[in-house]
Specification:
This protein has 340 residues and is of the alpha/beta class. The chain has one domain: NADP-dependent oxidoreductase domain (TIM Barrel, Alpha-Beta Barrel), CATH 3.20.20.100. It contains eleven helices and twelve strands. The strands form three sheets. It has an eight-stranded parallel β-sheet with strand order 3-4-5-8-9-10-11-12. Strands 1-2 form a two-stranded antiparallel ribbon. Helix 1 crosses helix 2. It starts with 5 loop residues before the first strand and ends in an 18-residue tail after the last helix. Residues 16-306 form the NADP-dependent oxidoreductase domain. Keywords: Oxidoreductase. One of its GO terms (molecular function) is oxidoreductase activity. Pfam families: Aldo_ket_red.
């Protein structure tokens, strides 16, 4: 095993880059075979990644099963994170932040993962029908029972983060964050830093758009980007012009676009841990290399100059998906799609 630089989120010390495991089970077209998924997870551990992020809803539990089969026999070498509330326990996915469902989802997750303890357990989304205090209280009881080690929140607003923190210290908040997606900068990052909460950046390469993976809207069946406004139609055509300029910056610096994007996230603060996801071992190695690349201040400034407010058109979620997200939005995210 190799060693990567580490960072601290709450009480946990993890590799500076983690692995988001969702891609191995759903979301971006046909997932890899179980054998290939296991090989990638084991390779990530061998290369020094010590922070693996899954969730009950990924593949309707299949992702937790995959992680369990792939690496749980090497449990001492990594920090395990999973999530509840957004689930598919009874068929179609939905939100249920009730203490009873949280307890049920956690017990099922432990069984699927093949372990008796999850190091970091998130409320995946806010169930607006259940006070956040009740949902956090359920995780406090799970922690007292030894089933989880630390409590996290995902895609929640600064106000909700503060309410949750008043019940029990929150270790980490997870939200999409990349040079292209800056929503945490509205309020969440400031709230986390004021409260001493670590920040986990999912989709640090903007769902592949900042990794050379999106050049048109010809997505495979089952790819969630086909339903995301900024990844389709005239919005996508407009956004790719900025992406081209970003790619040119990476080429001039002698690194890949993915490395520039992940490196930019790492440079935003030592309290931030990006968790890119991939189904490719080659891309995984590319992402891992970003942990030791130092980006010059003028390059970081050039990236910021590209992604000024309004540079990217279209909301990051469609209306149905946005209804389950509480992270603050920019005014331009509410605009109708740009006409063709």
């Amino acid at each position: 095993m190799t060693t990567l630089p580490t960072r601290t989120i709450g009480p946990l010390t993890v590799s500076a880059i983690g692995l988001g495991c969702m891609n191995l089970s759903h979301a971006y077209g046909v997932p890899p075979s179980e054998a290939d998924g296991i090989a990638l997870l084991q390779h990530a551990l061998d290369r020094g990644i010590s922070f693996f992020d899954t969730a009950a809803v990924y593949g309707s539990g299949d992702n937790e099963r995959l992680v369990g089969r792939a690496i749980m026999h090497r449990r001492q070498y990594f920090t395990l994170a999973s999530k509840c509330v957004l689930h598919a326990e009874d068929g179609p996915r939905g939100l249920d932040g009730s203490p009873a469902m949280i307890a049920r989802t956690l017990d099922n997750a432990l069984g699927r993962l093949g372990t008796d303890h999850i190091d970091l357990y998130y409320l995946h989304r806010l169930d607006r029908d259940v006070p956040i205090e009740e949902s956090v209280g359920a995780l406090v009881r799970a922690k007292e029972a030894g089933k989880i080690g630390a409590i996290g929140l995902s895609e929640m607003s600064a106000a909700t983060i503060r309410r949750a923190q008043a019940v029990h210290p929150i270790a980490a908040v997870q939200t999409e964050y990349s040079p292209m997606v800056r929503n945490p900068e509205i309020a969440v990052l400031d709230a986390c830093r004021a409260l001493g909460i670590g920040f986990v950046s999912f989709s640090p390469v903007a769902r592949g758009m900042l990794a050379g993976a999106v050049r048109d809207a010809d997505y495979a069946p089952g790819d969630i980007r086909a339903g995301m406004p900024r990844f389709t139609g005239a919005n996508l055509a407009h956004n790719l012009k900025t992406v081209d300029a970003f790619d040119a910056l990476a080429a001039e610096a002698g690194i890949t676009p993915a490395q520039l994007s992940i490196g930019w996230v790492l440079a935003q603060g030592g309290d931030i841990v990006p968790i890119p996801g991939t189904t490719s071992i080659a891309h995984l190695d590319e992402d891992i290399a970003a942990a030791t690349i130092r980006l010059a201040p003028d390059l970081l400034a050039a990236v910021d100059a590209l992604f000024v407010p309004g540079a990217i058109r279209g909301p990051r979620y469609n209306a149905a998906m946005q209804a389950w997200v509480e992270t603050e939005t920019y005014p331009d995210e509410e605009l109708a799609p740009v006409a063709a």
